[in-house]
Amino acid sequence: MASGPLVSVCIPVYNGEKYIGETIESVLKQTFKDFELVVCNNCSTDHTLDVVSKYQDPRIRVVTNEQNVGMVGNWNVCLKEARAPYVTVLCADDLITPTCLEKKYKMISKDERITLVFGASTVINTKGKVVVNRRPLRKTDVYNGAQIAKKSFRSHNIFGEPSNIMVRKDVALKLGGYTKDVLYSPDWEFCMRVASSGKVGYINEPLMQYRVSNDNLTTDFLKRNDLLEQDEKVLIREVKHISGLRLTQGDVVAHKVSIKARLIERYWFMKLLR
User: Is 47:21 a contact under the CB 8 Å cutoff?
Assistant: First the structure.
């Protein structure tokens, strides 16, 4: 029998008092019960820890960094602190549906070659209203990871937000975790790297809700065209080095073309916040 939890849900948080209670409750409502919930507090200065302390479930564990290590640094703290073989890094303002852990665990644990599982998702606003439904693939299945990673690179981040994936901890750590070199989309680069190392499971059912708000760091970054352009160059450089992906010049050109479409998407994304 396993000596610890089967799944670690890790919530990286900095000043997340506004929504973290809802996020924790979405985890505690899971049909799958064999999990730990690790709150990785990145030196919050608000009432985040007061909110977390209201939940007395023994599966909840709080880790507080000695100093603020940044967003990506805290995601890596999540990976290192996880005690289970499978990890979900759940952002402090996102939600997961009641069957999320059950369905993702069932898929990722059935084949050791599956390194990452993700699902369909929805985008919600600050009031919890669904504004976008996303189904990046056509059917629930297990796919060649490198092919999915290349498909994603050529078009857009089909894996969705950080909260939408479950990964094998050993694989994630072996590959170096999240890179700090990519500022805007370190989770996308991370997903392509993990996916390329094996197989990818996809569940064609919305299992996560990504909250769009003016408070989140992604929104702040999207307002800076200069940073986005520079970050794209870094992303391309990093993805070219992913073992097993074997990018061609055509793949890079397709990616650059897709950037223009993503800029248009960014415009509508920003309008959702108004």
Answer: no
User: Is 207 within 8 Å of 97 (Cβ atoms)?
Assistant: yes
Q: What is the pLDDT of residue 221?
A: 46
Region at 194 (left for phi over 0; alpha for psi -120 to 50; beta for the rest)? alpha
Q: Which of 228, 255, 241, 231 is nearest to 151 (CA)?
A: 255
Average pLDDT of span 37-43: 98
CA atoms within 13 Å, Cβ hemisphere of 102: 10
Compute and round to an integer the Cα radius of gyration of the chain: 18
Nearest to 24 by CA among 54, 69, 47, 4: 54
Rounded to an integer, what distance in angstroms lies between the CA atom of residue 193 and that of residue 79? 15
Q: Which of 90, 83, 122, 118 is nearest to 104 (CA)?
A: 118
In the block, which residue shows the tokens 């990890």? 87
Would you mind telling me the total number of residues written for the chain in this entry?
A: 274
Q: Which residue, among 127, 96, 90, has the nearest Cα to 212 in the 3D structure?
A: 127
Give the tokens for residue 219: 């929104």
CB 92 within 8 A of CB 177: no
Residues 6 or more apart whose CB falls under 8 angstroms from that of 54 comprise 21
- Confidence check: pLDDT of 226 > 90: no
Per-residue pLDDT, 274:
55
Element holding 63 (H helix, E strand)? strand 60-64
The stretch 157-184 carries a mean pLDDT of: 96
